[in-house]
Amino acid sequence: MERSEKWFRGRGTLILIFSRCVPGARLPTYLAAGFLRLPLPRFLFVTGAAACVWTLVMLWLAQTLGTPLVHWLKQYQHGGLILLGGGTALFLAVQWLRRASKNNEK
Description:
Number of helices: 4
Radius of gyration: 24 Å
């Protein structure tokens, strides 16, 4: 346990920062920081600074790319339904072929 705590103390700052960018990584990383006794002031400072930078970047991206992205996506508004229908048809065809091949083996 002491070795893990020492390892996390050395790399914890970078791990906390990058966990902000990886979906689903924050909760496990924050729990690991608590279990491995990362000092609370360091944890609060790193997560607070990372959250502030992350929020500013996301707001800037939304402001900069939001309107052009919405216009671009409007061109493909029916594409999702076409993909859903095609995927469903492919799934049903594969299931039908599997059952047909099993019936032929018997």
